[in-house]
Design brief:
Length: about 80
């Protein structure tokens, strides 16, 4: 269980199950995190995830480029974040 985590970054899979997971995460963590960033990785195939992105050449240093204020997500801004 999270206890007042300052920031959480999540990367949903690129399919309906990933969107459901994201909605469930938002419901669970919104009360205990100060900010939640949703990173949607570019170029993922349907159902793809961070493993697919890494296999296609994504790196840890590239990943930090996606943690921006524009990716800030709250219950009020979801869906669309």
């Amino acid at each position: 269980m999270l206890k007042k985590a300052p920031r959480l970054v999540v990367m949903p899979d690129s399919d309906a199950a990933g969107e459901k997971w994201l909605a469930d995460v938002l419901d669970a963590v919104t009360p205990v995190v100060k900010s939640l960033n949703v990173v949607r990785l570019p170029g993922l195939p349907q159902g793809g995830d961070v493993t697919d992105w890494r296999t296609a050449g994504g790196t840890k240093s590239n990943l930090s480029n996606f943690w921006t204020p524009q990716n800030l997500c709250t219950r009020e801004t979801y869906p669309g974040c």
